Amino acid sequence: MSISAALNSALSGLSASSRQTDVIAGNLANALTPGFAPRELGLQAQGGRGGVAVTGIARHVDPVLLGDRRLADSALAGAQTRAGFAASVERVLGLPGEGDSLVDRITAVEAVIAGATARPEDDIRLATVLRDLTALGAALNTASSQIETLRSRADTDIATAVERLNTGLGQVAELNTRIVAARSAGHETAALEDQRQQVIDGIAELVPLRQLERPRGAVALVSTGGALLLDGRAAKIGFEAMPLVAAHMTLDNGLVSGLEIEGQPVRTGAGGPLDGGRLAALFDNRDGLGHAAQRGLDALARDVIERVEALTPPPSPALFTDAGARLDPAGEAGLAGRLAINPAVDPAQGGALFRLRSGPDAAIPGTPADAPFLAALGAAFAEINAPAPGEARRDLSGRAADLSSRIAQARLAAESAVSFAAGQAGELRELELRGGVDSDAELQRLLLVEQAFAANARMIQTLDDMMQTLLRI
Fold it and tell me: How is the chain split into domains, by residue range?
């Protein structure tokens, strides 16, 4: 080997050692950076010229583990979204025994009716009955309004999630273009790939997806439900938010928006192309549990009105009314928000308490010791019946307890799903971190690089000494 060839080999070794030092330092500096993948410098022996050549920087990522972790993150985000909504609905209905739940209010009404029936001439007891009946109606009104608020908030969150999804897909498409261009020009793309991985991680929380490799470093994204989200061009996800989601507004009647992909409507429920992540959970909250809670409240309100309407012949309004009128069987949607006490029994609205003894349609007080309507009202609340064929027979408080129980079961199921998904996601993230930057191994590599650098520097020093000796001869 000539002196010039040996010098070239030593200089290339110094350059490679310097690059390796940069790579190791970057790995150590970014050991805790989200989305960062460990780098390794690619080296290759040069044949004719001698020495070593840098072939590039490789990112070390386990694509299978990364894909599974993204699916677990998506499942966790969906479970947490459902659990939070179910807990909010449960708070709206209240927990039996706390005093302000629907069950407790119905029980309180039954108790004061029994007390007033024993002393119907006592206007104080009648006023207590009126107070608790009014409180029951107000509780149903408030619960209905709060459920509408929760559904409206879910609708707004859907719009935000869709905007994030479209923005993220656009960013991945742009990064794809930049990575392809950089590779074509011979530039490093590891930093761009880290950025793209972080963006895809954010998208995966909204929609479970798989990443497919494409030529020259680009990727395609496909949801686990089969929707093509990105392949060269990002798909456009469409959704129209509503300012208010009222009780009667559902996806089935077209009064709230569903999802569109490239202008084509797609299913938003179980088995849909975007099912499994936070976006699908938000639709479940708005159109599933939220709507079911609203229907449960309306059914309870209908049961209340039907029980007391049987005590007042038509066309006079009963003790409880549908916004001042008798019940319209075809207008149950939103009934809990419209239920109101008949003004005829409320002195504050121009009525009279004696009608609690004789009936809302009574014209004269009648005998104070005689309270046929009050006694019949207590029996109506306690009557065990089935409002519709196929439903269980319950008294009024049992009907309210059933509704609370269904919501509690939904909340418990959602929390169980959160626990399972959190354990799975945590385990996969730990496995992913194990394959990340190993600081001990990086420091060991740094020692080897230091030795290589010193050896190459020593080679150059030796070659310089040789040349100086030759020049002195």
Answer: 3-60+436-472, 67-427
